[in-house]
Design brief:
Layout (H helix, E strand, L loop, with lengths): L1 H16 L5 E7 L2 H4 L3 H13 L2 E6 L7 H10 L1 H9 L2 E5 L6 H8 L10 H25 L5 E7 L2 H7 L5 H25 L2 E5 L22 H13 L9
Parallel strand pairs: 1-2, 1-3, 3-4, 4-5
Helix pairs in contact: 3-10, 4-7, 7-9
């Protein structure tokens, strides 16, 4: 009788140890940098392997989504807002084409101002305001609940991929200076809130990065580039923080 009891107990313990894993909801926010790459899927796999949880991926990054559109969705899209309320993990990229219209005006010499840069200055201030409200909404929606939020920033290589040979080195320097100033503001604000800031790519990667890191368009990440980013994200660890 004792032998059968031990056998049954072993079966019960085996079954209970194979119960459902904890589930983490992972939400992506941004534009085609996420939507056009495999970063979310690869990062979700790393989380599952590293932490031993099941990740439910909610890809809300949308190709071509301007910051103003994302901000409006954060304000009014209740489905998106509920996903953020429930999320354990959020990754966010502020569109690298944040100043697309002003930058085109600058290239066409219709940006106004004595230096043809007034529209870039205006876009910079608007970007700062948009980011601040986005971060406020994310902080409010997580409502004191520990989360893991990673914000992506970029080097000036984005201009090599986005505009290719359509700009001069001087034009690239002017346009990128405004974007870098925005990212400096964004990074300081994000860190103060408890968000992690992740720079794409690592410091030891050349600028522009190797061609194999990108798809044929020279801008969106290839499988190799996506894996490098996902690996670096996983190496940052999984320390949850209450945003403030």
């Amino acid at each position: 009788m004792k032998k059968y009891f031990v056998l049954i107990l072993g079966i019960v313990l085996a079954l209970t140890s194979c119960g459902p894993r904890e589930t983490w909801d992972y939400v992506t926010l941004g534009d085609s940098f996420f939507a056009g790459s495999s970063i979310p899927e690869q990062y979700a796999t790393f989380i599952e392997e590293d932490v031993g949880v099941e990740v439910v991926l909610h890809e809300k990054a949308v190709s071509g989504q301007e910051p103003a559109i994302l901000l409006e969705n954060l304000r009014t899209d209740e489905e998106l807002r509920q996903l953020i309320r429930d999320a354990e993990v959020i990754t966010f990229d502020f569109s690298a084409s944040w100043g697309n219209s002003p930058e085109l005006k600058y290239l066409l010499d219709t940006c106004k101002g004595d230096d043809n840069q007034q529209c870039l200055r205006d876009a910079l201030e608007q970007a700062k305001a948009d980011w601040t409200e986005m971060a406020d909404i994310i902080t409010e929606l997580t409502a004191g609940r520990p989360v893991l939020v990673s914000v992506f920033t970029f080097g000036d290589w984005i201009y090599d991929g986005y505009y290719k040979d359509k700009i001069t080195s001087e034009q690239k320097a002017v346009m990128s200076s405004y974007f870098m100033e925005f990212q400096k503001f964004q990074q300081a604000d994000a860190v103060a809130r408890g968000m992690r800031v992740f720079h794409v790519f690592p410091p030891d990667v050349s600028s522009p990065p190797p061609a194999e890191y990108f798809q044929s368009d020279g801008f969106h990440l290839s499988e190799k580039g996506s894996k490098i980013v996902a690996e670096m994200l996983s190496e940052l660890g999984y320390e949850f923080v209450v945003l403030k």
